[in-house]
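Lecture 7 notes: from sequence to structure.
We start with the chain below.
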Amino acid sequence: MNDVLKTCIVDDDSIYRFTMVKALESTKLPMEIMAFSDGEEAIDFMLDNLDQNSVFPDVIFLDIDMPVMDGFQFMEEYVKIKPRVGKKITIYMVSSSLDPVDIERAKKISAISDYIVKPIGLSRLKSIIEELLEDRKN
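Predicted structure tokens for the same chain:
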């Protein structure tokens, strides 16, 4: 079992992606980090690698509001390919939106683990990664 957590950030804000990468790296936890600037890039990566589950992320931090393909559109496409994905992927919908409509819509998608309001605090981020790493050992 590979003890490195493959972590993915899908967000159109380059500054947010940069700060998320730095925050994740600062935890010193064993992970590989990949980032995409919109949902289409992320879903294309998954479609291109359906025969190589080992390259898929273990966790995705997915923004809602992005050009090209937003977080909800990504989830629509992901749900279609999920049966062909040979591993469990934990997905967190991440947004600055406090709109109850967005929150409720995200909660109705069973493939989404939780809705997190930006910014994600370092302690919350670290506990999410630690929990995922621990779950992999069990």
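Points to note: The longest strand covers residues 5-10. The two ends are 11 Å apart (CA to CA).
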